[in-house]
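User: Um, what's this?
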Amino acid sequence: MAKQNVAEQFVDLLVRAGVRRLYGVVGDSLNPVVDAIRRNSGIDWIQVRHEETAAFAAGAEAQVTGELAACAGSCGPGNLHLINGLYDAHRSMAPVLALASHIPSSEIGLGYFQETHPDQLFRECSHYSELISNPRQMPRLLQTAIQHAIGLGGVSVVALPGDIADQPAPARTAEHALVTTRPSVRPGDGEIDRFIRMIDEAERVTLFCGSGTAGAHAEVMEFAERLKAPVGHALRGKEWIQYDNPFDVGMSGLLGYGAAYEATHECDLLILLGTDFPYNAFLPDDVKIAQVDIRPERLGRRSRLDLAVWGDVRETLRCVTPRVRAKSDRKFLDRMLKKHADALEGVIKAYTRKVDKHVPIHPEYVASVLDELAADDAIFTIDTGMCNVWAARYLSPNGRRRIIGSFSHGSMANALPQAIGAQFTDRNRQTVAMCGDGGFTMTMGDFLTLVQHDLPVKVVLFNNSALSMVELEMLVAGIPSYGTTNVNPDFAAVARAAGAFGVRVEKPRQLAGALKDAFRHRGPALVDVVTDPNALSIPPRISAEMVTGFALSASKIVLNGGVGRMVQMARSNLRNVPRP
């Protein structure tokens, strides 16, 4: 048997760690690795048109599967293009291994063509970023990188010069068993005892949930029932906690709705469960707060804490719920449920007022129809900006759907690349990219990736020819909108020219039929929906001081848009409110 080179050993180890695809763009320094993939039946090279897409795709794949995914870029500019998508994956705790191939090892530090220092450049968006400068570092260095990505949840980067990749690999005797799953972590007994005492002493408890509640829906519901606690959520907690939730009081933040803000401020104990919600202006400063999180560095960095509990949400609640004293008084819970229903009723008009006849089409209407027609197990990828608003308000989670976006990093142009990675995990599972025209055009070249790989992603394009979220920020700050208008083509015609299904929708009555046709089409499809750029109705009390990036620092000030079927969800919860 011929001796392996470093590239072959590298690829074999990725396969052993469960990696099935390597997303990237070929380049000379990557050639030994790409050739090794060509000859390995356990892994595929997924050619994309831009390395940023490769990183976003890998991050989405990792979020869908919960397993390690990988991407690669050639030396210098090639791997630098990975950086934005890697930031997003890292901040989303998606386990991703990035291969940054490098210039010849003998030229490092001498100003060679395309020279950068990737082992340094990626340190801020990774748990581990190191250079293989000698074949004898393999396979230990790659094993270490893999276990950082999986064990800590995030990105590892390995820089590999092309000449090193082509050299003979050392013997494999140094390999050891790979860790490919994360353990459950419960808090210490002392923390649990203090947590229980704090809960028992409180009269009004509210739970605020983030993505750390993934896999803990049943435990959170049991905990809320025992405490008679309202349950609010951040955007990243929506898919995990909103469905089948009779304690739901909505979402807090700029995209918020319902009574989540009131519930978090009118309690006497707020429990933050698996959330790194960044907008501390929406969190109270005059109630007791306990936080449960698997990542200790996140404890207390958003708000003052009275108790920090280090552990994953599911294991912590399994320890705590049976021991806390059950509360019988529902007055606080019922009052918050009633406020939530009333708040939703107050904004439902923006959605119900003749939107099925409005031209240009209301984006709320598009999101609502999409929610009704999409599969029960669909994966939605969401562009940053106004698409976040429509997803937050109109997509109905059910425990089977997935909702993925750049919710922590806030990058434009994420939805199409993330849909690529999500669709590769299961070609038969409906994957829908909710794109804004600004985000879509930024990475539009990778629509061709859908065609090339015959990926049946359905792109639903909210085309208002504007960067609407930026316009909103300017408006709130008292600045005239400037530089926010897009001159767009007929995107459906572009899709058809590329060899995909494409249909343009300009009237509401065309929408349902166009979406059904796209969903029935077996290959990639694009539905170009011309939407109203003036769809948002802004409350008059917003001041410039209330805007901080993507957040408003006022309590009840949210976008006055509709909330789709969430009003029905709130009404159903009112069955729990005793009638006089």
In short: The radius of gyration is 25 Å. The chain has three domains: 6-166, 189-341, 356-574.
